Structures are given as structure tokens and as C-alpha cells.
Known about the structure:
Layout: H1 3-20, E1 22-30, E2 40-44, E3 48-51, E4 57-63, E5 66-73, E6 80-86, E7 91-97, H2 115-125, H3 128-141
Parallel strand pairs: 1-7
Antiparallel strand pairs: 1-4, 2-3, 2-5, 5-6
Amino acid sequence: MHRRPFALLLTLMISASAAQAAVLRGHVTDAGNHILPGATVRVEPGDVTTVSDRDGNFVIADLKPGTYIVEISYVGFLSASREVNVGGAPVTLDVKMNLSPSVSESVTVTASRERGEVEALNERKRPTATRISIHIRRSTLR
């Protein structure tokens, strides 16, 4: 008989705490609406950090209702900061990131090969008979 009031009280406490938890959802893109997977999303206060998934989406659950500062960062882009008020209903935050002015959009790659490596590759390209005759000539010279 005493179990029913206890079970009812426990159910009410769980329901009340679940109703107080807030959810923050978001989507991170660049100025051209290209998805930015792996963007770091940090929520203060509370020191909560997550990263956006491969579709640029993120979810932060179990936030207490209140005002938070959400900071989003991504390599090569300026950090974005937003103030968000969360309550009982889920909040959605769409963030467009801007390229950092210190980042160039062009990349130049240069490479060189050692002389011995080039000779070895060229020797592999020659027909087998040519390699054999070169090898014979070299061995007779020694």
C-alpha cells in the first residue's frame, strides 16, 4: 500500500526533471551553404562541447533552461558566437561560417624526386630485352 504513493512521487519527480531539460539543435554551413562537418560547438556556461556530424548537424541535450553563449569554430573560418535562450521546447540554431581573411583559397604543391629514384623508374619502363642488354654491357665493362 505504501508503494503506490512512493511510485507516484518518483514518477512526478522524473517527469518534472525531464520537462526542465532543454535541447539545442543546429546546422553549420559556410557562406555558400556548403556543409561543415566536424565543426566544434561549445556551450557556456556548462563547458559543454560537441562536434557537427557529416551533415553539419549537432545536438546538445539535457541543458537547463536559461541563456547560453554558443561558440562555433572550424579550421580556416572565423569563429561564430550566438546568445541562445533555451526553455522547454527544442531550440534550433543555423550558423553560417565566414572564411578567415588570412586563409588563401588556392594551394600550391611542389615535389621533387631524387635522381636515383627517377633512373629506377625509367629502367622499369624499358622493355625487358633492353634491360638485359644494358645489364650485359655494364657487367662486361667491369
